[in-house]
Write a structure and sequence with these properties.
Alpha-Beta Plaits, 6-stranded mixed β-sheet, binds zinc ion, alpha+beta, globular, Aminopeptidase, 428 residues, 4-stranded mixed β-sheet
C-alpha cells in the first residue's frame, strides 16, 4: 500500500480522538500512533512528562546513515471545539463533499497523518528514505508545549541526536494565483512570542462619588494608545524574498513601504504575511472589578505580542512608554523568533517534491506570524521548516479555518500531500 492510499483513513482515525487542550489529553491518540508504528516494525518510544500527556517518537533508518537526520514532528493536541458552532461534529471524522471535517483537520492532524503514512510506506516496503527520519508526535503545543516539545528537547535531547533539520506545520499549502498557478509558501522563519500583563492601580471607592483615579479608564486608554500606534515595518530575509517573489509572479513592482499592494492577491495567506512584517500587540484578556457599584482598586489586561525575529530588543520598554504613567508592565513569557537559511538540499528537495506533483508550483520562503514547536528544536541547533504540503482548491480559506468552527481538509489535497511527502523523504 502507498502512503496516499491510507493517509485519509489515518487522518480520520486521528480526528476521532478528542485531544482538546486543556480539556482532554493525548494518551489514547499516542497509543494508537505507537501501534501504527509498531505494525510496520518500528520501535516507538512513549514519553510523558505528566500522566496522559504522552509524546511518541520513533526513528526510521535512512539510506545514508552518515548524514544528519530529519525530524518530522506533529502535535497531537488541538484547540477545543464547541460542537454547536459546527456544521459537522468536530470529533467524528466525517467526509462530506470531498472534504474531511474535524478539529485538527488542518492544525495539524492532516500533517501528522501524511508523515505517518509515508513513514509506514517506507517501513513496509523496505525502501529507505535518503537519511534517518525521526518521526515525533507531541503533546501540549496549543498551551505552549511545556509537556511536549519543550520538555522533549530539554529532558530527552538524545531522541534528536545527530539531526540537523525538521519539518512541521504551516507551510507547503497552496495559494491560487491567476492563471491556474499555485504558490506554495515554505515557512523558514517564525515570530517570537511576548506575553505581558499591564496593571493599573487606583483609588477604590463608592461608584456614586466622582473618582479621577479609577484604574479602568486609565488602562483602557493605554490599550487604545498601544493598539493605535502603528508599528514599523521590519523586513527579514524570508519576508523580503517572499514579497520579491510574489511581485515577480504578479508582474508588479515591490515597494517595501506598501506590502499590502502584494499581499491582497494572496487569498487568506495575505493577512498572515502582513502580520509577520511588524511586531503586533493584541489585548486578549481584561480583568477588573467585582461589583457594579464599586470602583475597583486595580485593573489588569493581558497582551499577546508577536515579535519579528531579531527585533525583540527594546519592545517592552517601548510598550511601557506608550502605556504611560500609572501602568506597570510585567513580562510573563518572552521567546525569540527564529529564521533559518533556505538555500540548500532540504529546501531544494521540497521544491522538487512539490513540482513532481504540481509542475507549475512556485515555491517561496516566508515568515509565519505565529509560533510552532520548531522554536524549541532551534534551541538544540535544529533548523525547522513549515512543510505540510496540501494542494487546496482556489478560494479555500486555509488560515481562516485554523482554530475555527468547520475546520476541514480536502481529501484530494491530503492524498496530494502524502505523495509529496513520500517523494520528499526520498530526496531530502
Ligand atoms: Zn498547530
Amino acid at each position: 500500500m502507498k502512503a496516499e492510499d491510507e493517509v485519509v483513513d489515518l487522518c480520520r482515525e486521528l480526528l476521532r480522538f478528542d485531544t482538546s487542550n486543556p480539556t482532554s489529553n493525548e494518551q489514547a491518540a499516542a497509543d494508537w500512533v505507537a501501534e501504527k508504528l509498531r505494525e510496520v516494525g518500528l520501535q516507538p518510544e512513549l514519553l510523558a512528562a505528566e500522566p496522559g500527556r504522552t509524546n511518541v517518537v520513533a526513528r526510521l533508518p535512512g539510506a545514508d546513515r552518515e548524514r544528519p537526520g530529519l525530524v518530522a514532528h506533529s502535535h497531537l493536541d488541538v484547540v477545543p471545539a464547541v460542537a454547536t458552532d459546527w456544521r459537522q461534529p468536530p470529533f467524528a471524522g466525517v467526509i462530506a463533499d470531498g472534504e474531511l471535517w474535524g478539529r485538527g483537520a488542518l492544525d495539524m492532524k492532516s500533517s501528522g497523518a501524511m508523515y505517518l503514512a509515508a513513514v509506514r510506506a517506507y517501513a513496509r516496503s523496505g525502501r529507505r528514505p535518503a537519511r534517518d527520519v525521526v518521526i515525533a508526535f507531541t503533546a501540549d503545543e496549543e498551551a505552549g508545549s511545556r509537556l511536549g516539545m519543550a520538555w522533549l528537547v530539554k529532558d530527552q535531547p538524545r531522541l534528536f541526536q545527530n539531526c540537523s533539520e525538521a519539518v512541521s506545520e504551516i507551510g507547503g499549502f497552496s495559494v491560487s494565483l491567476a492563471g491556474d498557478q499555485r504558490l506554495y509558501p515554505i515557512q523558514t522563519a517564525e515570530k517570537g512570542g511576548l506575553q505581558l500583563v499591564l496593571r493599573a492601580s487606583g483609588r477604590a471607592g463608592h461608584a456614586s462619588i466622582l473618582n479621577a483615579d479609577n484604574p479602568i479608564p486609565r488602562l483602557c486608554a493605554a490599550v487604545a494608545r498601544l493598539t493605535e500606534t502603528v508599528q514599523p515595518l521590519l523586513y527579514i530575509e524570508a519576508s523580503r524574498s517572499f514579497l520579491k517573489g510574489v511581485a515577480e509572479l504578479l508582474g508588479e513592482p515591490f515597494d517595501e513601504a506598501r506590502p499590502e499592494l502584494l499581499t491582497r492577491h494572496l487569498e487568506s495567506l495575505g493577512p498572515m504575511v502582513e502580520s509577520s512584517l511588524r511586531n503586533t500587540i493584541q489585548a486578549t484578556i481584561f480583568n477588573a472589578g467585582y461589583k457594579n457599584n464599586v470602583v475597583p482598586g486595580e485593573a489588569a489586561v493581558r497582551l499577546d505580542c508577536r515579535v519579528v525575529p531579531g527585533h525583540r530588543a527594546g519592545v517592552v520598554e517601548e510598550i511601557d512608554r506608550i502605556a504611560g504613567p500609572g501602568i506597570t508592565v510585567e513580562v510573563e513569557m518572552a521567546g525569540d523568533g527564529v529564521e533559518v537559511p533556505y538555500q540548500g538540499r532540504t529546501f531544494e528537495a521540497m521544491q522538487e517534491a512539490l513540482r513532481s506533483e504540481d509542475p507549475g508550483a512556485v515555491i517561496l520562503p516566508y515568515c509565519m506570524s505565529g509560533g510552532t514547536d520548531g522554536r524549541f528544536l532551534a534551541q538544540i541547533g535544529i533548523h525547522s521548516f513549515g512543510f505540510s504540503p496540501l494542494r487546496l482548491p482556489e478560494g479555500f480559506d486555509f488560515t481562516g479555518l485554523i482554530h475555527s468552527a468547520d475546520e476541514r481538509v480536502p481529501v484530494e489535497g491530503l492524498r496530494f500531500g502524502a505523495r509529496v511527502v513520500d517523494r520528499f523523504l526520498a530526496v531530502a
